[in-house]
From TrEMBL:
Keywords: Cell membrane, Membrane, Transmembrane, Transmembrane helix
Domain annotation Major facilitator superfamily (MFS) profile: ranges: 15-393
TM region positions: 18-41, 53-73, 85-103, 109-134, 146-166, 172-192, 213-234, 254-272, 279-297, 303-326, 338-358, 370-388
GO CC aspect terms: plasma membrane
Designated name of the protein: MFS transporter
InterPro entries xref list: MFS (IPR011701), MFS_dom (IPR020846), MFS_Efflux_Transporters (IPR050189), MFS_trans_sf (IPR036259)
Length: 435
């Protein structure tokens, strides 16, 4: 028993270490490769001479590739192994960022951002697969929330390139490419080559109930709506501040810095929210998200108000994505290939639907009117947040040992004879990670 407790303690410590490594890799694949693009849209539009509608379509491409790849990522991870899939994801970041830095028109730019979406689609499932083998099941939600906050780190890292390389977006993306190469090396050397331990006599996971499917559907719909609303800010906030508010590219860089720093608080908010009142927190954060849209649209030329809108947006967006992630894990404990993946897919689908639409609306109605329309949709969704899948009476007050969560984890730490099993970098090697 003591040896088992020791193994659990080691797993929990490695879980925190794993969370930090995952946050760094998420910062590259999500922050730099996927979400930094909106910051450079004004410069790219001017040099390549593209319309708002064209930019809207291109900005939707990484979201589309993210969704497509996310559907097959669990199979890719199972075949290649967690470490090799993580390396593959980081390699697509290198490819996509390099292509963007060399883009000469819509086609080459579109291929680059599409490759960046592939990177993001592979990264989270690969890290989740490794987390199942290395991390105590009781802290899966918290570790996932910390990793999710890596997006904010990546967004913040993109800002110095704007501040010190004014007008030189190609050099900025070249610097991102070099960082992504470092990410490939980190993935290879720091992601352990492990598989989930599944004894031959282990019971299969219980079937998903009708109530669970209904809650997952509600979660997916709320996540889709949030992604749809947030797409306006992610894609056109710097463009709005530059064209409507006459701010410089250097000044719009402060928006993304504020967004990234504020987004780090999302890990704390989402953790507290999921354990207390998810529905109320969802409504509050969604109202903050819509406030950021209306505030920027109303005062795009006021740098301090614009930065404040970015602070609100960053905290709200990262809190909501973290909340969706933890809710998915809570609704389907032990099924990390579905629970946390489904809301991420829904958010990406919402952004893929909203990005080209806001591009068309900007061309037809203008920035302020387009942002106001998306804010109105956000208010409507916030009003129906009481239907968010919070804690049910069936879930409340059930000790962990009666849920089977801890028992399942203890089972994973035993071999077929019931002896304690400690997972190391040399044990339980994935087929795809064998040398």
């Amino acid at each position: 028993m003591n040896s088992t407790n020791t193994a659990i303690s080691q797993q929990q410590i490695s879980g925190m270490r794993f969370a930090l490594i995952g946050a760094i890799l998420i910062a590259i694949s999500f922050g730099l490769a996927r979400f930094a693009f909106g910051l450079f849209i004004p410069q790219i539009r001017d040099e390549l001479g593209m319309s708002a509608s064209t930019i809207g379509v291109i900005a939707a491409l990484p979201l589309i590739s993210f969704v497509i790849v996310s559907l097959v990522a669990p199979l890719v991870t199972k075949y290649f192994g967690a470490r090799n899939t993580t390396v593959l994801s980081a390699s697509f970041s290198v490819l996509g960022l390099a292509l963007i830095s060399l883009a000469t028109g819509p086609i080459s730019l579109g291929i680059g951002v599409f490759a960046c979406g592939i990177s993001a689609g592979l990264m989270m499932p690969a890290l989740t697969s490794a987390m199942q083998a290395l991390v105590d099941r009781s802290i899966h939600g918290r570790v996932s929330s910390v990793m999710n906050a890596g997006t904010s780190i990546g967004v913040a890292l993109s800002v110095p390139a704007v501040l010190f390389l004014v007008g030189a977006w190609r050099y900025a993306y070249l610097s991102f490419t070099l960082i992504a190469i470092i990410g490939v090396l980190l993935a290879w050397y720091l992601i352990p080559s492990v598989s989930r331990v599944t004894p031959a006599n282990a019971a299969p996971p219980p079937k998903i109930t009708v109530r669970q499917w209904w809650n997952l559907l509600k979660l997916a719909l709320f996540a889709f709506a949030m992604g749809f609303i947030a797409s306006a800010y992610w894609t056109f906030a710097p463009d709005l501040a530059t064209n409507l508010g006459s701010l410089s590219s250097r000044q719009t860089g402060w928006l993304w810095l504020a967004l990234g720093i504020a987004g780090l608080g999302g890990a704390i908010v989402s953790d507290l929210a999921d354990r207390n009142n998810p529905a109320i927190t969802h409504a509050l954060m969604l109202m903050m998200l819509t406030t950021s849209l209306t505030l920027l649209a109303a005062s795009p030329g006021q740098i301090y108000l614009a930065v404040f809108s970015a602070v609100i947006f960053g905290l709200a967006y990262m809190s909501l994505t973290g909340l969706y992630l933890m809710t998915g894990i809570r609704l389907l404990p032990g099924r990390l290939s579905i629970g946390p993946v489904l809301p991420f897919l829904a958010v990406a689908l919402g952004q893929a639907a909203g990005t080209p639409l806001v591009g068309v609306l900007v061309g037809e109605l203008g920035y302020a009117e387009s942002f106001s329309i998306f804010a109105a949709v956000g208010i409507l969704i916030a009003l129906i947040s009481p239907f968010y899948p919070g804690h049910s009476e069936e879930d409340a007050g059930i000790p962990e040992d009666e849920t089977g969560l801890q028992a399942a984890f203890d089972y994973q730490l035993q071999d077929e004879e019931g002896e304690p099993l400690e997972i190391t970098n040399t044990q339980q090697t994935d087929k795809g990670d064998e040398t």
